[in-house]
Amino acid sequence: MMNTTNLISRKSLADEVAEKIQQQIAFGTYKVDEKLPIEPELMQAFGVGRSTIREAIKILTNCGLLRVQQGIGTFVENATGIKEPLSQRLKRADTKDLDEVRQLLEMKIAEKAALNRTKADLVKIQEWFKKRDKAAKHDLLEECIDADIQFHIAIAEASGNEILIDLYKSVAIHLRNWFLEVYKDTKPFKETSHQHKQLLKSIEAGDAKKAWNNSAKILGHISQ
Question: What sequence ranges are listed for the domain HTH gntR-type (predicted)?
Fold first, then answer.
């Protein structure tokens, strides 16, 4: 069994409150340099506890949207050009947008992996392919999804591009939750087992063009 702790991400109350405050600012309810209501009023307005409000304020402060002046209050710092962390942005991403980013990343990491993979990388990719295939055959959906994601993460790591690796891992957190929602059984994973095997072979062969094309075939099958 793999440890999936680092892949699980669920939207917290603080995230939801932060989104609502952000929307209010975007709609002009609160303007730049305007002071937000005090904590008890925000608690009542959103129906949450003090710790949730404080965490939501912290999220928006880290984004550059709010500023906290000790002893005075919390003010709107910026209403446009919010510097929202990628992890936070991905939490509220539309599934179509998320899938498009995933497609671009998976084709590129496959191409780069074919050029830069090591023997150790190949062993890891092979291991996750076998786990994916085994879980699919035994109709173990959650294990199959986890193995599928780890298979592609292993390919990302084989790419040798640290930015691509970090980007794919960030997206993978949200892909897992999405897959758990849309897939009801392992049939789609069984149907793409051959394509995944071909992708693995093209990476082993160091054929970047085939790796790109095989990745595109997988994504094309899933999107149909």
Answer: 11-79
Sequence-distant (6+) residues with CB within 8 A of 184 are 141
Cα-based distances in Å from 50 to 34, 39, 56, 98, 198: 21, 7, 10, 32, 53
CA 121 to chain centre: 22
Query: Would you say 169 and 153 are in contact if contact means Cβ atoms under 8 Å apart?
Result: yes
Domains and CATH numbers, the chain: 13-86 (1.10.10.10), 93-223 (1.20.120.530)
Q: What are the pLDDT digits (tens) for 137-180?
A: 999 999 999 999 999 999 999 999 999 999 999 899 888 888 99
Residue 68 has phi, psi (to 5 degrees) of: -105, 125
Which residue type occupies 103? Q
Query: Would you tell me how many other CB atoms lie within 10 Å of the CB of residue 9?
Result: 16
Give tens-digit pLDDT for 32-45.
899 999 999 999 99
Cα separation, 90 vs 98, in Å, equals 8
